[in-house]
Write a structure and sequence with these properties.
- The complex is a heterodimer of chains A (126) and B (165).
- In chain A, 24% of the residues lie in helices and 36% in strands.
- Chain A has 126 residues and is α+β, with helices and mostly antiparallel strands.
- Chain A has a single domain, classed as Roll (Thiol Ester Dehydrase, Chain A).
- Chain A has a 6-stranded antiparallel beta sheet with strand order 1-2-4-5-6-3.
- In chain A, a hairpin with a 3-residue loop joins β4 and β5.
- With 165 residues, chain B is an alpha+beta fold.
- Chain B is 21% helix and 33% strand.
- The N and C termini of chain B lie far apart (50 Å).
- Chain B is built from 3 helices and 8 strands.
- In chain B, the strands form 2 sheets. In chain B, strands 3-4-6-7-8-5 form a 6-stranded antiparallel beta sheet, with helices on one face. In chain B, strands 1-2 form a two-stranded antiparallel ribbon.
- Chain B has a single domain, classed as Hotdog Thioesterase (Thiol Ester Dehydrase, Chain A), CATH 3.10.129.
- Chain B is globular and about 45 Å long.
- Classes of the chains: A alpha+beta (126), B alpha+beta (165).
- Chains A and B meet through α2, α3 and β3 of A and α2, α3 and β5 of B.
C-alpha cells in the first residue's frame, strides 16, 4: 500500500489544491483563499475536483497502478463554508478493468454532506 | 503603439490574443462585470488563470492555460482542473442565458464524461450553452477541447443550475 502523501506529492494539481491525508483513509481539502468562488463559499468546481482526487487516491492507495476517470457525477447538496472539507471514497464495485466509487464530502458533520459524487474509473496497468 | 481600430460602444477589450468580447443580440448583460465575475472576482478561477473568451446569447467560452501546477502525472491538465473549468463555464452560460443576475442560483449537479486525457503542454477551452430553463432549473451542456482541435472534445458535461426562488 502506497502512502497517500507520496501520491499527492507526485501530482502537481493535488499539490495546487493543497490536499492532505486525513484519518482512516479520508482525504482533507484544507481551506485556502483560492478555493472560494465569487461568494464566501468553496467553489463547486473545486469540490468536484476534490471528489475526483479522493476516488483516484483511494484506488491508487489500494493497489491500482493507474486509475483514469471515466465519468463523474457530482451533486452539490448545500453551500460549503470556508472551512476544511473531508472526503471519503467507498468502492461500490471494483472489477479488473473498471471501478465504481461513491464519494462523500462533508465539513463539520459527516451526516450532512456538502457534496456527493458517483463515478467510474478505468484501471490501467502501470 | 496606437490602436488603429478604436473600441466601439458595447465592446470591452478581451485578453490580448483573444477577439474582443461582444454582447450578443437580445442580451442586456454588463460585459465588463461579467468579465470580472468570470475571471477576477472568483478566487478559484483567478488562481487557475481562466479567461472569458466569448459570450453568446445562451452560452460562454472560457480558456484555461496549460500550467505545470494544474497538471496530473501525464503532464496534461488534470481531470480535476477540467472539472473546475466546466463547473465555471456552465454556471456562466446559465447566468448569461437568464440575463438577470437576481435570478441566478447555485449549481446543483454536474456530470462529466472524460472521453480522453488532455495533451501535455496544451491549453484548453471550455464552452457551455444553456439548453432550456424549466422547473426552476437551467439545463446546461458543456465541452472541454483543445482550441487547435475543437471538433474533438476531451470532456463532455451536463449541469443543472437552480434559479433563485
Amino acid at each position: 500500500m502506497i502512502a497517500i502523501e507520496a501520491l499527492i506529492a507526485e501530482t502537481p494539481y493535488y499539490r495546487f489544491l493543497g490536499l492532505r491525508p486525513g484519518p482512516d483513509g479520508d482525504l482533507v481539502l484544507p481551506i485556502q483563499d483560492r478555493h472560494a468562488s465569487d461568494q464566501p463559499v468553496v467553489h463547486g468546481g473545486v469540490l468536484a475536483a476534490f471528489l475526483e482526487a479522493a476516488a483516484v487516491l483511494h484506488l491508487r492507495a489500494n493497489g491500482a497502478a493507474r486509475a483514469r476517470t471515466g465519468e463523474l457525477t457530482t451533486a452539490f447538496l448545500r453551500p460549503a463554508q470556508l472551512v476544511d472539507t473531508t472526503a471519503r471514497a467507498r468502492p461500490v464495485r471494483r472489477g479488473r478493468r473498471f471501478a465504481h466509487l461513491q464519494i462523500t464530502a462533508w465539513q463539520s458533520d459527516p451526516a450532512s454532506p456538502v457534496a456527493v459524487g458517483y463515478g467510474t474509473w478505468i484501471l490501467e496497468p502501470g | 503603439m496606437s490602436d488603429p481600430h478604436p473600441t466601439p460602444d458595447g465592446l470591452i477589450p478581451g485578453p490580448e490574443e483573444a477577439p474582443p468580447l461582444r454582447r450578443p443580440p437580445g442580451s442586456t448583460l454588463d460585459l465588463a462585470r461579467l468579465y470580472l465575475v468570470a475571471t477576477d472576482t472568483n478566487a478559484a478561477h483567478k488562481a487557475m488563470g481562466t479567461e472569458l473568451r466569448a459570450v453568446e446569447r445562451h452560452g460562454a467560452t472560457v480558456s484555461l492555460p496549460w500550467r505545470e501546477d494544474l497538471t496530473e502525472a501525464s503532464g496534461g491538465l488534470a481531470a480535476g482542473a477540467l472539472a473546475a473549468l466546466l463547473d465555471h463555464v456552465c454556471s456562466l452560460a446559465a447566468l448569461v442565458s437568464l440575463d438577470d443576475e437576481d435570478r441566478f442560483g447555485t449549481t446543483m449537479g454536474l456530470h462529466l464524461d472524460y472521453l480522453e486525457p488532455a495533451v501535455p503542454g496544451l491549453p484548453v477551452h471550455g464552452r457551455a450553452e444553456c439548453i432550456r430553463e424549466a422547473s426552476g432549473m437551467v439545463f446546461v451542456r458543456g465541452l472541454v477541447f483543445h482550441p487547435e482541435c475543437p471538433e474533438r472534445p476531451l470532456v463532455v458535461a451536463v449541469a443543472t443550475v437552480a434559479t433563485a426562488a
